[in-house]
Structures are given as structure tokens and as C-alpha cells.
């Protein structure tokens, strides 16, 4: 979901500078090798991180349907996604595609065999308007509209007093890892690479 806790998940980026408020001199990582100690055997799990492009849209949405949409706390609390396995929220999918997949700021962790094991959907946070955005007023799903209104409320209040005026803000909108790969540092690597 866009803007979940934007004050905790946003990195300030000043135009032309690579410094952030969250990490200084983050080492660049190109390839990651993890060891899994299941059954006392050492299994090598290699992956690399690459930029998400518009061509990856359907693979990313399939991944999010499986590992994020149902379990995300806001979605879960209002039962946004029905229980049947093939169910989804088309407005949520469109929102993810519209806001994060075509800006070259989002990343995915991919195994050597090509399977996606983690994604981070990032975007540039624009200054929120006092008016309700069109994507909220035109949303036909009443449950998802509630989430959009909450996120918009958070956005409007995070920059109260103009604290971030004139700055570009990179916002982590969604981060999700394949449940079989959790606890192995994928999310951390995605955040570090984003920074």
C-alpha cells in the first residue's frame, strides 16, 4: 500500500546528493548468497537485485497476490481480498501498477533461475493536496477507498508545517518477501539497494 507510515519508511533525497537520513555510506551490493540450514544441509541460495520495469508488471502482481495482498494488515483487517484463492482487488492492483511499477525506482530480488523472491515498490512522494485526489474519488471499491483515504490522511499530515518542502522524498510503498525466503536478509538488501 502506498504511504504506509511514510515518516518511518521515507528517505529524504536532496537533488544531486546521495545522502539520506537513514544510512550513510551504504555499501553497494551486487549479488547475495545465502545459506539455508534446513535439515542440517547447506543449500546455496543465490539471488541478485534488479530494477523493475513495466515489462515485469504481471510477474510482480502475481507475486504480490501470493505474498502480500492477503496478509497486509490494512487489507486483512477490512477483509479486502475474499478468501477464494484466485480472488484479488483490481483497484489495489491498478493502484500498485499506477504508482510504483513504471518509475524505475522499484526493485526485485530474483534467483538465478529467474524466480522473484522479494520486491520493494518505491515511489516519489509528491506534496499532498488539500483536495481528495481523483484516484480516491473515482475508486469504486468502498473497502479499498477507506484504505486510500487513510493513506491520504497520513500523507497530508506527515508534512504539516512544510518540514519537507522543496525536497524529493523516496517512499517505500510496498515491501514483500517470498515466505520461503523470509529471515534471510532479502528485505534489508532491497532497502539498502533502494537507498
UniProtKB/TrEMBL annotation:
<keyword id="KW-0808">Transferase</keyword>
<dbReference type="GO" id="GO:0008080">
    <property type="term" value="F:N-acetyltransferase activity"/>
</dbReference>
<protein>
    <submittedName>
        <fullName>Dopamine N-acetyltransferase</fullName>
    </submittedName>
</protein>
<dbReference type="InterPro" id="IPR016181">
    <property type="entry name" value="Acyl_CoA_acyltransferase"/>
</dbReference>
Amino acid at each position: 500500500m502506498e504511504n504506509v507510515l511514510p515518516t518511518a519508511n521515507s528517505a529524504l533525497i536532496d537533488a544531486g546528493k546521495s545522502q539520506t537520513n537513514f544510512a550513510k555510506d551504504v555499501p553497494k551490493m551486487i549479488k547475495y548468497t545465502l545459506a539455508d540450514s534446513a535439515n542440517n544441509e547447506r543449500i546455496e541460495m543465490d539471488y541478485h537485485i534488479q530494477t523493475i520495469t513495466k515489462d515485469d508488471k504481471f510477474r510482480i502482481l502475481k507475486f504480490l497476490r501470493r505474498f502480500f495482498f492477503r496478509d497486509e494488515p490494512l487489507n486483512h483487517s477490512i477483509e479486502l481480498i475474499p478468501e477464494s484463492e484466485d480472488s484479488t482487488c483490481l483497484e489495489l492492483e491498478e493502484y500498485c501498477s499506477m504508482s510504483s511499477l513504471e518509475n524505475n525506482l522499484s526493485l526485485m530480488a530474483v534467483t538465478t533461475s529467474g524466480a522473484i523472491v522479494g520486491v520493494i515498490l518505491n515511489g516519489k512522494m509528491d506534496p499532498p493536496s488539500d483536495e481528495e485526489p481523483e484516484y480516491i474519488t473515482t475508486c469504486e471499491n468502498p473497502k479499498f477507498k477507506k484504505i486510500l483515504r487513510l493513506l491520504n490522511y497520513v500523507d497530508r499530515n506527515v508534512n504539516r508545517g512544510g518540514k519537507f518542502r522543496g525536497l524529493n522524498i523516496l517512499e517505500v510503498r510496498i515491501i514483500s518477501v517470498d515466505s520461503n525466503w523470509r529471515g534471510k536478509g532479502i528485505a534489508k538488501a532491497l532497502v539498502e539497494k533502494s537507498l
